[in-house]
Amino acid sequence: MINLNKNFWVNLPGILIVFFLPFSLSIPNIIIPFGIVAIVYKKVSKESFYFKPIVPFCLFFLAILFSLLLKNILIEDSKMLLRIGLVLIAAVIILNTTKKLIVKAFILSINLALALSIFKILNYIHLNGALDLSNGEVIYNVLPIERPYFGFLVLISSLLTFEIFQKNEMNKKLLVSIILINVLFVFFIASRLTIITYILVFILYFFKYLEMKLTYKAFILSLILALSFGLLSINGNFMNRLKLDQGIKTFVDYEPRFVIWPCAVNVLKEDFSKLIIGPLGFESGTNALKVCYSSSIEKLDKREWYLERGFNAHNQFLGILIISGIFGLIFFIYFLFQLYKSAENSFVYLSILLGLSLFFILECIIYRQLGCYIVGLIIALVSKKNE
Fold it and tell me: Residue 253 domain-assigned?
């Protein structure tokens, strides 16, 4: 009885952190100290903390710390540094939680959030008669968190559900239904990054893991891709988001990264001599980007919108170069390499890492608290892939 109680209290913080991710970050933040206490109470061995990708991430964290110290801006950027440290704390707490409990809590949580979103969408349509999900304000009101992050969490949920399907641990019809609902929901809300990831994941599974003659694979894949692009072409939300019907020029004008990325490169080019440790800090880097937005954007309303939003580099690799330079970037890339190496030939975890890598190209994930929790969760899941 004592062991059962002990296991319950040790597992509870990790379960609650994972469960509340799509609903509220306040609760995971409150739970973190209890998770640390639970690990101490459990008296875990050193092996429970050791997972190869954690080492390069620690080196990456130290590279940022060293860079901020050299530039004498540690106090100014301490909040962001502590946020990145959250990746390690969350990873260790979830690492010391039973995998089955983590996975079930996560799938349940994401699908509850998805069901709540569907209810809000239907209610919005009932009240307003139409739903334009290309409108950022509308999507903010019907989804629990920002669209790219929720889409990515739904992707992880569907892949973990597929893992359960492969292990024959639950009713297969129910699991297939969950996966289909997850995929269709992502297509409906026009989460561009997740849609692209789903297509790439499907191609990966088809050619690397599915045992079938190559000619059959090519034929079936062509049909499914044609169906996917057909669905996208008639999906008003997706087409409105891309604005391709208004021409490439309009798409480029509305896509922030066509302004943000050149500005991030300009910030790096201003002083190549400081590229070893990074030319700026978190706050000063954001301010430098704002200066670039102010000088490079001609339209007044567009310029004011960029300055108000204060966009970061929107690319994790560029962001790291600005903050911690080449050394920080090397350790971060080595961290990703170790994650991929740890995933080995696991379709589910290689697919999650593929999605994470694409996310890193388009967002500075670990500058966001939710992103830090997600990366910590992925580290833990990859380490537990054989459980």
Answer: no
Give domain status of residue 272, yes or no.
no
Residues 285 and 322 sit within 8 Å (Cβ to Cβ): yes
Report long-range pairs for 319-322 (Cβ below 8 Å, ≥24 apart): 319/264, 319/285, 319/364, 319/367, 320/60, 320/278, 321/268, 321/275, 321/278, 322/264, 322/267, 322/268, 322/278, 322/279, 322/280, 322/285
3-state secondary structure of 95: helix
Query: pTM of the full predicted structure?
Result: 0.91
**Number of domains the chain contains:** 1
Q: Would 303 be classed as within a structural domain?
A: no
Is 55 contained in some domain? Answer: yes
pLDDT by residue for the chain (387 residues), tens only, comes to: 444 556 777 889 999 999 999 999 999 999 999 988 877 776 655 555 566 788 999 999 999 999 999 889 999 999 999 999 999 999 999 988 999 999 999 999 999 999 999 999 999 888 887 777 766 778 888 999 999 999 999 999 999 999 999 888 778 899 999 999 999 999 888 788 999 999 899 888 888 877 777 777 777 778 877 877 776 666 666 666 666 556 677 767 778 898 999 999 998 887 666 788 888 888 988 999 999 999 988 888 889 989 988 899 999 999 999 998 899 999 999 999 999 999 988 999 999 999 999 999 999 999 999 999 999 999 999 998 887
User: Which spans in the chain are helix H?
Assistant: 2-19, 26-42, 54-70, 78-95, 99-128, 136-142, 147-166, 172-189, 192-204, 214-234, 236-242, 248-254, 257-269, 282-296, 300-309, 316-343, 347-362, 369-383
